[in-house]
Design a protein that fits this description.
Shape: globular
Radius of gyration: 31 Å
Bound molecules: adenosine-5'-triphosphate
CATH class of one domain: Alpha Beta
Strand content: 15-25%
Structural class: alpha/beta
Number of helices: 23
Largest sheet: 8 strands, mixed
Oligomer: single chain
Length: about 675
């Protein structure tokens, strides 16, 4: 039997059953044995009926004391039979199972497994599974796997198929003995057997560790190979540094921070170095990444080529576009920018696309409209994605495909914990903008409960009357009966208007508004025609209004810490002191511990680490939805130290033997070729 054999080679799996397995993406025996259980069931010792009622499933040893009675109520058939042990009796119920009349007979004994409840003083057991003594003894010896099934495919069918595959395959160990010893890894065949049918908890842990190791090992091997490829790809465009970028830097009303200067130098070296750039610029909120993107676009434009920048929201794209237009005009830059977003009319879009194709524009800024098939670039040399992880995998691939080996610059304001950064951006060079402009004062924070609402509003009035602006964030757009106690933008605005003096101008903003309406409001806020903006998290990413100095976040307990930090990043962007008020709306007397993390720190990296610890990686930054965490067993939080160890091991191995040609590494090479197809394609992350 081979890993690559079709599952139909197993006895009892015909075309029809194979079709059901296909629904779970299982075609080969390898797919089958890597279809890991989602949980396990431990069958324990049996207990007496008198102690059985409760939430957990239990096992009872019962003798049937009556006959099976079957009655129909409309379309529901209900079958009951009485049973007892030495401590008491109960009634067993099955639904729509008339045929059990022939099997369940008075006097028979079974081990019954299921949940027991008490109803009107009667003890009831619904649809228990029945086993003979011998069957139950076998079950008790192993933890039983639970699989994520599909209709028509039972747990028993999957377990049986897995057992057959495990028995038929010969698992050749590919890891050299010294590595297995060093990392205390069990044998590969044993690991597969024990992950499906563990003898006990310890064996399961060991199996899991071995399989997580294998997954991470393949991942880093592939990552390393990709890094090598990226490192060596020569760029088809030779760009030269022109005087324009220096001129812009001279003309700006501020001097770049040291971190900005260092990053700009790194980008410049990449762009003019003859090799395709693949760089991630990571900087905390408000650290000044946009100007670095503009300098890069300017360099490309000054070389007669095109650059494009994709932002995750319409508002943000427009903001970047307007800022670039402003700079182009003010400093006479050789830039011809164009905006391409979903809300541009079809006729106008056609016109702009024609201009892009002809080369009338050399900088294109937009949302995902930039990568629609119709857009053809004349000479796209640089692609910049802002807040990359918000884009879907396919979108990013399409964007890259628009240019021929274009330089890639990714800007991220999300401070990503180290382990996660390695997974997400392991193949990229990293620039850290780890310094904020010198004129910034750290945001002052406080966490309050709703009982302090009046005080918070007085503060809002004081700040707005001093000429500053404020944001109030609510989790919901409009009132919802099912979400009592959760603030919504629409009712909150109405209530706030009543609380504030008339001259303070309050407006709301949310994601369900028309794009043109959202733009109009943002524009008005930017131009100081609105004092308080009540909004959902649509303003979370990138919006830059330096005059806004207060943010009040209602129901802060409902947001993740990293997201709250992003929201708070909308203030503290100018020279004035800013304040963030987190309102814990959970109704508890004192605010939650979790929010104190934000109270204590303004450091995005620290907050992201804390968030990761509290929530696990899958919930962070919507990564689960975007399909980035494709590991089946490994968990980058739980296995973070293993992850670091494996990364080091792979680096050392490849340093000594880059092509894995040494005799002792032959088996690793063979195994990797089997696995690469199943791994995360990190180029597309
Ligand atoms: N070196 C600097 N000195 C002073 N102000 C600066 C400096 N660099 C950028 N700025 C200004 O700081 C503000 C924030 O910059 P920018 O919008 O680029 O932040 P960002 O890093 O993109 O943050 P976010 O990810 O939160 O959007 C802008 O108004 C920008 O003009």
């Amino acid at each position: 039997m081979q890993y690559t054999d079709n599952i139909t080679s197993l006895k009892g799996i015909g075309e029809k059953t194979a079709g059901l397995f296909h629904k779970l993406n299982i075609t080969t025996l390898y797919d089958l044995i890597t279809f890991f259980p989602r949980d396990y069931e431990q069958f324990g010792e049996r207990i007496p009926v008198s102690q059985a009622a409760g939430q957990e499933p239990v096992t009872l040893k019962l003798t049937l004391t009556g006959d099976y009675k079957y009655r129909k109520f409309a379309s529901l058939g209900v079958g009951t039979i009485t049973a007892a042990d030495e401590s008491g009796q109960l009634v067993i119920t099955y639904y729509n199972a008339p045929y059990l009349k022939n099997t369940l007979k008075r006097g028979m004994s079974y081990y019954a497994h299921g949940k027991v409840r008490t109803e009107k003083n009667r003890i009831q057991m619904d649809q228990p599974k029945l086993y003979t003594e011998e069957q139950y003894q076998t079950l008790m010896r192993f933890m039983q796997p639970k699989y994520a099934l599909t209709k028509g495919l039972s747990a028993h069918m999957v377990s049986k198929a897995v057992s057959m595959a495990l028995a038929g395959l010969s698992f050749a160990e590919y890891l050299p003995e010294d590595i297995r010893m060093e990392y205390q890894l069990s044998d590969i065949g044993k690991a597969y057997r024990q992950i499906h049918f563990p003898e006990d908890y310890e064996s399961l842990i060991l199996a899991r560790k071995r399989l997580a190791f294998d997954e991470l090992f393949s991942f880093f091997m592939q990552l390393h190979r990709q890094k090598e490829i990226t490192k060596e790809t020569p760029s088809a465009f030779s760009l030269l540094e022109t005087a324009d970028t220096g001129r812009l830097l001279e003309a700006l009303p501020y001097k770049l921070t040291k971190a900005q200067m260092r990053t700009w130098q790194e980008i410049k070296d990449d762009l003019t170095g003859g090799i395709v750039m693949n760089r991630l610029v990571q900087g905390d909120v408000g650290s000044g990444k946009t100007i670095l993107a503009f300098l890069s676009l300017l360099l490309v434009a000054a070389n007669g080529c095109q650059g494009a920048m994709m932002a995750p929201t319409e508002i943000l794209a427009r903001q970047h576009y307007e800022e670039l237009c402003h700079m182009t005009e003010a400093y006479h830059l050789p830039v011809k920018p164009v905006l391409l977003t979903g809300s541009v009319s079809a006729a106008e879009k056609k016109k702009r696309c024609a201009g892009i194709e002809k080369g009338d524009y050399n900088v294109v800024i937009g949302t995902s409209a930039l990568i629609q098939e119709k857009v053809v670039y004349q000479k796209l040399v640089l692609v910049i994605t802002d807040e990359q992880h918000r884009f879907g995998v396919r979108q990013r691939e399409a964007f890259l495909g628009k240019g021929e080996q274009a330089h890639v610059l990714v800007m991220s304001a999300t401070p990503i914990p180290r382990t996660l950064a390695i997974i997400l951006y392991g193949d990229m060079h990293l620039s850290l903008v780890d310094e904020k402009p010198a004129d910034r004062l750290p945001v002052k924070n406080c966490v309050i409960t709703r009982s302090d609402h009046k005080k918070a509003v007085s503060f809002l009035i004081k700040e707005t009357q001093a000429g500053h602006q404020a944001y109030v964030i609510c989790p919901m757009v409009e009132e919802n009966e099912d979400m009592e106690g959760v603030a919504d933008v629409i009712s909150y605005t109405a209530a706030l208007k009543k609380e504030l003096p008339e001259q303070i101008r309050v407006t709301y903003l949310h994601g369900r508004m028309r794009p043109s309406e959202k733009d109009r409001i943002m524009e008005a806020y930017l131009n100081r025609n609105i004092d308080v903006l009540v909004s959902t998290t649509v303003i979370e990413v990138g919006i830059n209004v330096p005059n806004a100095t207060v943010m009040m976040i209602e129901n802060a307990e409902r947001f993740g810490l990293a997201q709250l930090h992003q929201l708070r990043g909308r203030i503290g962007r100018g020279a004035a002191q800013s304040y963030c008020i987190f309102v814990d709306g959970s109704g508890k007397d004192s605010p939650s511990e979790r929010l104190q993390v934000l109270n204590k720190s303004n450091d995005g990296f620290y907050i992201a680490e804390e968030d990761l610890k509290m929530r696990g990686p899958g919930d962070l930054f919507g990564i689960r939805q975007s399909g980035i965490m494709n590991f089946k067993v490994a968990d980058i939080y739980q296995d973070s130290s293993l992850l670091m160890q494996v990364r080091k091991l792979v680096e050392d191995l490849l340093m000594d033997d880059p092509d894995l040609t040494a005799k002792e590494h032959e088996s690793i090479r063979g195994w990797l070729s089997l696995n690469f197809g199943n791994l995360v394609d990190f180029r597309s992350i």
